[in-house]
């Protein structure tokens, strides 16, 4: 039993499918089954149950025309019922649209600013109803198309919605300004960025100004718009004070300077609101405030930039990977870290030279020193790693160790320092942690000094071998070392 037009259309399609396709297929299947039954009857006896089942099956086919007829009658009945219901709903919907249009017309008398919350609520509800009306229109048209009716048009909906638009825009902007005004004036001074306040007020003001002109033929509404515009203008008169003393970058040291200028102490706490600042009537000092406010902004920007740099390094980590079967690790993929480090070193030097850095001079000098130390550590670290990776396979050969005992001892010392440092770094891969490792740069420099001595000794050793056997001059150092490390195989 269909409960709506969509279900009725589904039923209608189903009935047509049964009548034109399914029943014909079933009739063919019954003929096939009949041929099987006739064939079987020559060889077996059918039980009473089987005969009853066959009887039911074949007789059902004869009942189908009546079933189809009943359903067609049901479809006709329900079609009439749903069509009547659709017409009634469309009639009611048209009455609603007329009521909405009347409600919009009545808004021409709304001029009391104290009633603004009520106006705004009614306009918002009406706007939502007119938006939802579009969905209802689509549903009506869908049903009309299903019944083959001409699709209804509802120009009054669009006309009403367009007419409501300016009213809602006025109420939205007026409500937004009054709410923001309350927030700005009663919040602690510096809670909101004056640039944001100025931008929002300017946008609302331009909108209200245009709407006031648009409602010129409706005096009550124009009066409401005028009232709001005048309140915005009154607020805008205080923007110089807001932009200077409302600066979020103002710290206690700046307020002490302000207090000296105005001649009485201004205590900065939660009770010091923008409203209280404006009540002090300090407009005559605005020119003097501007220099302090500008300085506070520059200092605040520098402090934020410094904090941002520190924060960026918190999550930076080294990629430290196991090196072959050596039992230790090597540093990998430092390009991104190096790029960030170069960028921050330049920024730190620029900030240090700023005339507004004085309140954070110690912090920026300390931070720059930290970055420079990290740069020095990275340079020495990568230099040690490169040489260690070259020499490690050479001095892992016992034959080389015997032939160059002094260099072997030096390499063992470097190898021990390297393994200790890499083990420490592998346990904590944070980039800034290496700056805290005790005497890391000194240990790396010691390694590099020893590695330079080892390489010099190695070159002297190879040069001596070439002098003994001049054909060795045709070999590279690596090839010669490979031969000399195999002294147990004379054929080499």
**How many separate helices?**
17
Distance between the termini: 99 Å
The computed structural class is: mainly alpha
Query: Structurally, how many domains make up the residues?
Result: 2
Shape, principal axes of CA atoms: flat
Q: Care to count the β-strands?
A: 2
- Helical amount among residues, as a percent range? over 70%
Strand order of the largest sheet: 1-2
User: How would you sum up the major sheet?
Assistant: 2 strands, antiparallel
What is the radius of gyration? 45 Å
Could you characterize what this model shows?
By secondary structure, this protein is an all-alpha fold. It is 76% helix and 2% strand. The chain is built from 17 helices and two strands. The protein has helices at 5-41, 48-106, 116-147, 155-186, 194-214, 219-236, 239-245, 252-262, 274-279, 286-314, 335-352, 361-395, 398-403, 405-427, 433-436, 440-468, 477-484, and strands at residues 319-322, 329-332. A two-stranded antiparallel sheet has the order 1-2. The longest helix is centred in the N-terminal third of the chain and has 59 residues, at 48-106. The radius of gyration is 45 Å and the shape is flat. The N and C termini lie far apart (99 Å). The mean pLDDT is 92. It is found in: Cytoplasm, Cytoskeleton, Cilium axoneme.
